[in-house]
Amino acid sequence: MQRRTFLGLAGALPAWGQRRWLPYDLVIRNGELRDPSQGLRRQADIGIAGDKIAAIEDHIDPARAIETIDAKGLLVTPGLVDLHTHCFHSATGLGVEADPIAARSGVTTWVDAGSFAWDQTAGFRRFIVQPAQARIYGYVYLYPNDRNPDEDVIKYVRRGIEPTGKTVEKNRDILLGVKFQVGSNMNGRYSLEMLKAARELCDRFQLPLMAHISFAPPSTAEVMALMKKGDVVTHCYNGHSLSIVDEAGKVKPEAREARERGVWFDVGHGLGSFNFAAAKKALDAGFVCDSISTDIYNLNLNGPVYDMPTTMSKLLYLGMSVEDVILRTTANPAKVVNRMEGMGQIKVGGPADLALLEVEEGQFRLIDSQRNAVSATKRFVSRGTIVRGRRMRVV
Ligand SMILES: [Zn+2]
Questions:
Q1: Rounded-to-integer distance, Cα 31 and Cα 47, Å
Q2: Distance 269 CA to ligand 1 centre (A)
Q3: CA 294 to centroid of ligand 1, rounded, Å
Q4: By C-alpha distance, which of 53, 22, 3 is closest to 354?
Q5: Which pTM value belongs to this model?
C-alpha cells in the first residue's frame, strides 16, 4: 500500500510528533455508501491512506485521520467514470480541461473518445494524461486530420491502419482502442467503407472499436454487422436515422443481436445525440444502456450537457433508479476501461476515487440535444470529488 512518507508530512504538520502514527490521511464520515456492483448500500465511514481505501467501518474515530469530510446526507459512490469525453486540446478547440470539471462533477476517470490521432498520442500522454489529477484514458482516432484533398479518401484512411494499431499497442496503459464516426453527416466523410477500414485495423491488432452513430446511410444493420464483443456503440439514444430504435419505437433487431454478442451501448449525450423520446422508447422496450456518458466538449458544456450529474439526472427522470444510474456511471464503464483493479467500486485496497453526490428534490428543467425540455422532480448534484485519495479543489 502506498503511504505518504513521514518526511513528506513533517513540513506540513506542526504536531507531527503526535500525528505520525495516524492511520488515515482522510476519513469520509457519516455518508451513505452506494456501490451497486457489490450491492453495497450502507451508512459507514471510509478511511483513506495514500491513494487507497484502507477501511470501511461503521464508525472511524476522526482523531485517527489527518483530515475528515462530513458526508452526512450525501451518497458516497465510486468515482464516476465518463466513457465519452473530449479533453484533448486539438486545433478544433473542442476539448475541455478535465480537472476543473472533475472537481465539480464527481468524475474521477475520463475517457477521451477520439479527439486525437496516432501522431498526437505523445502529446496526449505528456500534456493531458500526466499533469491531470483525474485519471485520463483515450480511444485514438483512426486517422489524422491532414488529408491532402487530392488524395483518395479511402486510401488516406487505410494509410492510418498500420501506425494507429502500432501506436495503441505501444500505449496500452492509456489507450483503450480505436474511435470511429460513421454516418452520412459531416460532409459524407464517414462511410461504411471507412468503418470497414476501422474494423480491419481492430481485427488485425485485436483492439476494441468505439463507433459513433448518427445519420443513415449506412443503415443500423450494416453498422451493427461490423461490431464485435467488447466494442462500444456510442450515442445509443440519439433521435437520428442511424439509431437503435425504428420509427415505430421498436428496438431494431440488429441492435439486440449486437448486444447479445457482447457489444456495449453507451449514451454519449453530446450536442446532438441524446433525445428524450428516443431514450424513452428504448427504455420502454427494455433496452437499457450499459453506460451513461456525457460526450462533453466546449460546445455543450454550457448546455445541453453541462456535466455528468445533469446527464445522470436525465436517465433518472426517464425512470431509471438511482442504483441503475450509479452502476452505469461507475463499475460498468470501469469494466470497459479495465486498467485498474477496483476502479468504479468501493473496496478496501481499491483506489480512493469517490464521488459525493446528493439527490436533490424540487423542480428542475432538463433539456435534451434537440432542446426538448422536461421538468424533473429529482436531480443528482455533485458535492465533492476525491481522486487518488485527495479531495479535488473546486476553482
Ligand atoms: Zn464525442
A1: 12
A2: 8
A3: 8
A4: 53
A5: 0.94
CATH topology for the 79-337 domain:
TIM Barrel (3.20.20)
Task: Kindly report, residue by residue over 14-30, the tens digit of the pLDDT.
Answer: 455 555 689 999 999 99
Distance between Cα 91 and ligand 1 center (Å): 15
225 contacts 261 by C-beta, under 8 angstroms? no
Cα 4 to middle of ligand 1, angstroms = 37
Residue 198's H or E segment, with its range, is helix 192-205
- The rounded Å distance from CA 211 to ligand 1 centre is 10
Query: Can you give the residue ranges of every domain in the chain?
Result: 6-77+350-391, 79-337
Residues with CB under 5 A from ligand 1 (ion): 113, 295
Residue given cell 486517422 in the structure block: 143
| Lowest mean pLDDT across 139-153, 216-230, 362-376 | 139-153
**CA 140 – ligand 1 centroid, Å:** 12
Tens digits of per-residue pLDDT, 103-132? 999 999 999 999 999 999 999 999 999 999
Answer yes or no: CATH 3.30.1330.60 is held by domain 6-77+350-391: no
